[in-house]
Amino acid sequence: MTGTAATAGSVPWLVTGAGGMLGRDILAELASVPGTEVTGRTRSELDITDPGAVRAAVAAHRVVVNCAAWTDVDGAEADEAAATAVNGTAVRQLARACAEAGAVLLHVSTDYVLPGDGGRPYAEDAQTGPLNAYGRGKLLGERAVAELLPDTGYTVRTAWLYGTHGRSFVATMLELACRRATVDVVADQYGQPTSSSALARQLAALGRAALAGRAPAGVYHGTAAGATTWYGLAREVYRLGGLDPGRLRPVGSAAFPRPAVRPSYGVLGHGGWARAGLPCQPEWRDQLAAALDTPGFAERVAAARAAATALTPV
């Protein structure tokens, strides 16, 4: 994947995992800012488990945004070693390469490093305690960044991410609206639906602040303001899409048994942004409304509306 051309005084950024949902959005965000030279590397172009390839890719870059990850949460239960090789060991190699190159690292992590059994938003320094293999691997990655890049390493935890590139809960709800008269949705897990494009803007701003020496290194929480359940999110998708939320039925997590345990409460606090002099993300409903107006989602909304006339709840 090619990047933008270098210009006088440009700042070279590297985005790993550039073919994924977030990677594509951060590439677009950076390319829109004058004076930013950005190179994207997809999974096929850069194997982040290869130390030599990682070192060569990082060289000469000022900022690295790591969007590369093993994202199959349930698959990690079946092959924790493979998941950890990407989410833990490879991140250590990437952090070491950034230390050698003198580059800032923005590493994208997850709320799954936390125990998820609280009742109030988790602060950035809250005690970790992952419930599943995916979270354990991601926590190893976080620790590597903190250890090897104490002054230039930034871990940004996110959750419930959706966007126009790739699969997401929001896209799935619109697809199911085309095929099913009623849809059961989990109503006992709480989180923060977050637009990939909103997170991309936040990552770009954090990287610039880091280069300027304004943002302290450490953990940040890159999620939307507010919180809801999967059922609450689905209802808002239907409402904004002009669909009948009455077609949705709330159920408990037990209705959808999965190999990996999910946290019941993954709501994150956002105090780190104020300390860096940067704004938090907009409220989740506002993000969702903006996302559904984009061409990628608007077409799916239109299809769901058209299909609704042929579906009658039973």
Automatic annotation (TrEMBL):
SUPFAM superfamilies linked: NAD(P)-binding Rossmann-fold domains (SSF51735)
Keyword check for Oxidoreductase: yes
E.C. numbers: 1.1.1.133
GO annotation terms (biological process): dTDP-rhamnose biosynthetic process
UniProt keyword Oxidoreductase present: yes
InterPro entries per record: dTDP_dehydrorham_reduct, NAD(P)-bd_dom_sf, RmlD-like-bd
Record's keyword terms, sorted: NADP, Oxidoreductase
Pathway: Carbohydrate biosynthesis; dTDP-L-rhamnose biosynthesis
Annotated family: Belongs to the dTDP-4-dehydrorhamnose reductase family.
PANTHER family, sorted: DTDP-4-DEHYDRORHAMNOSE REDUCTASE (PTHR10491), METHIONINE ADENOSYLTRANSFERASE 2 SUBUNIT BETA (PTHR10491:SF4)
Protein name: dTDP-4-dehydrorhamnose reductase
Organism, scientific name: Streptomyces tsukubensis (strain DSM 42081 / NBRC 108919 / NRRL 18488 / 9993)
Gene transcribed to yield this protein: rfbD
